[in-house]
Amino acid sequence: MSAPCRECGHPQEEGHRFCPVCGIPPESAGKATLEGMEAFEQGEYERALKLFKAEAKRRPRDPFALRDVGHAAFHLQDHTQALEMYRKALQLQPNLLDTQFNLGLIHLQRGQVHDAMHAFLETLDLIHPLTPGTYYLGLFHSDSTLTLQCRLNLGGLFKERGELEKALEQYRLVAEDWPKNILAQGNLGDCLMALERFDEAMAVYKRTLKLVPDGPDRLNLRNDLGVAYFRRGEMEKAVEEFKAVLQLDPGNTNAVYNLGQLYRQEGQSERMRKDFKEFVQNPAHGASILFDLTLSMVSTAATASKNPVQEDQALVGNSLSLRKVQDLIKRASAADATVLILGENGTGKEVAARAIHQQSSRHDKPFVPIACSVLSESLLESELFGHEKGSFTGALDRKLGKFEVAQGGTVFLDEIGELNPSTQVKLLRVLQEREFERVGGIESVRVDIRVIAATNRDLKKAIQDGRFREDLFYRLNVIAVQMPPLREREGDLPLLIRHFLDKQRQKRNHRFEGISQPALEILKRYRWPGNVRELENLIERVVTLNDDVLIRPEHLPAEITGSNPMIVNPTIGLPESGVLESMEKDMIERVLRETRFNKRWAADRLGISRPTLYQKLKRYGLKIGTDKGKM
Fold it and tell me: If DSSP codes are grouped into helix, strand and coil, which group holds residue 529?
């Protein structure tokens, strides 16, 4: 026990930053700490950060001083600095509740599902009755509110990973202790719906409706109840719920969409005519509801008639990072703007481009891909713009370029960062004017096309280095889609493995039904430099060379089982880009040696194309001898 509180005289336990009775800091607290706390409470986070940093410099081994810096940085959205301070604080004092909880929030925002779950579970394990001395500035009023927040976040993370039963358990615990929490009740119903437990879902929605006052939350619950009736096959009750929502909120888009889907899919012509007459009699909003409802039905019919994205081109997965990409692809498909797809090799940039094309109004027109790094400058211009007869040696006839071939459709320019300056100028004109001249020609050719470009390079750095035109970058970067690397797609690995096993089954008969847990753990720890393409090549290799029911560790190649895995450790920061490039260079060297410097085999092993391998050899200054195949 330390000295009694200077304000109320209550004994203070060691390690407490505040009196558990009156909340006054002890006399030992530094002036910078006290001023920093005052600034923090007033929302002056920049001033608080400056003061806390001064105190942390004076006491570098004090976990509370380090934590204070982390809190100020967290509220300033400087999550990199907050993570650094939190990790240092936890190394010195592992039982900091607020620090573990905020770590979970940062990982949640970054889409790092595994790390976020670990942090929230650690918080639950540490929770004890909160006092001003055990929790920073009273951000939670009690241990129960902190528990409920952790469980809400865990429920969302389990739901994201497809572990619906575990999500259900977390949401049920929150709903029992906090019945009026609409987020918990709504997600509880969503999980039950996904599990096709419709009766239980309807019971949740009905029970919650009795607790929620009139307002948007109540309308959303009635919409959800209507969907549950719809899925249960009780169409009359479903219609009544959707109509009840429209009576209270004629512009409710969810109710309009749901009712339109019901009419369109169930073909209830008699019921529809009756309801339409009822809507017409509404002098205030009837016409508006009918107009929106008609649009919804037309949209549903148009979506159903479109060519679906082929299965082998699907963006498989349910991770937060991939769901963001899928949502952005839908938005990009609805527009007709130029799209720039960014991401590492093998992340599925062409897959995303095809998905945008197939879901767009140009889906019935050509999709024409071209790799900009494969051809020389003269050949690339001929491929893109075409050429006239006699324009160069060997030009025996007129040739149409990719832009003309794609008339009305989409041109996909892969590895756009490799374009030479002169071709960049001509491409800029195509994007601005939608016209060009063939090589050796003088007549302008006009085209109606959409351009989607992709690159694994940092184009902003290329602009600074004078290798890429800034005006072309802004023309391309109208809608940007960032493809996440496989190592950041938490929970997608099992789904992708299943997808590629099913895809291989269409090519050859095999007995593989899935993957064993030990093998899956090895793949989860692997870094995947070649991303999804490397995984697909691995599955094909395993299926080709083995005969088993499950993929097992002994089926995996040495470069995966024997590589240094990227272990997720909350106390270690992420490697910088230079470290990643060094690791990639080392891996390329090792694979080349293992394949006896056969570049085709090496590219397959790395999960990249041969042109990409050549680029990396050039980037890292790797040379392959032609006599004995030595580096």
Answer: coil
Q: What is the DSSP string of 297-322?
A: HHHHHHHHHSPPPPGGG------HHH
- CATH number of the structural domain 486-567: 1.10.8.60
Q: Strand, helix or coil at 453?
A: strand
Strand partners, 454: 341
Round to whole Å and give the CA distance between 106 and 101. Answer: 9
- Could you tell me the residue ranges of all domains in the chain? 31-140, 216-305, 311-484, 486-567, 569-631
Torsion of CA 617, 621, 626, 627, to 10 degrees: -130
CA 306 to CA 334: how far, in whole Å? Answer: 13
CB 470 within 8 A of CB 459: no
Averaged over 69-93, what is the pLDDT? Answer: 89
**pTM of the complete model beyond 0.85:** no
d(CA 588, CA 616): 9
CA distances from 365 to 357, 361, 362, 463, 540 (A): 9, 9, 5, 33, 32
Q: Cβ(19)–Cβ(26) under 8 Å? A: yes
Q: For domain 216-305, which CATH number applies: 3.40.50.300, 2.40.160.60, 1.25.40.10, 2.60.120.200?
A: 1.25.40.10
Q: Which residues, other chains included, contact 145 with Cβ-Cβ below 8 Å and sequence gap of 6+?
A: none
User: Residue 569: pLDDT above 50?
Assistant: no
pLDDT at 315: 82
Distance separating alpha carbons of residues 46 and 420, to the nearest angstrom:
45
What is 311-484's CATH topology? Rossmann fold (3.40.50)
The predicted structure's pLDDT at residue 14: 54
pLDDT of residue 273: 66
- Chain segment 517-557, per-residue pLDDT in tens: 889 989 988 989 999 989 999 998 898 888 888 999 989 98
Q: Does domain 31-140 have CATH number 3.40.50.1000?
A: no
Distance between CA atoms of residues 398 and 278, nearest Å: 64
| Tokens encoding 497 | 């493995």
pLDDT value for 577: 44
Query: In whole angstroms, what is the distance from residue 40 CA to residue 136 CA?
Result: 11
Beta strands 410-414 and 450-455, pairing class: parallel
Q: Which superfamily is assigned to 569-631 in CATH?
A: Homeodomain-like (1.10.10.60)
Q: Which of 621, 469, 616 lies closest to 529, judged by CA?
A: 616
**With pLDDT > 70 as the criterion, what percentage of the chain qualifies?**
78
Tell me how far apart the terminal alpha carbons of the chain are, to the nearest angstrom. Answer: 67
Q: What does the pLDDT look like over 238-270, one tens digit per residue?
A: 888 888 888 788 767 677 777 777 776 656 566
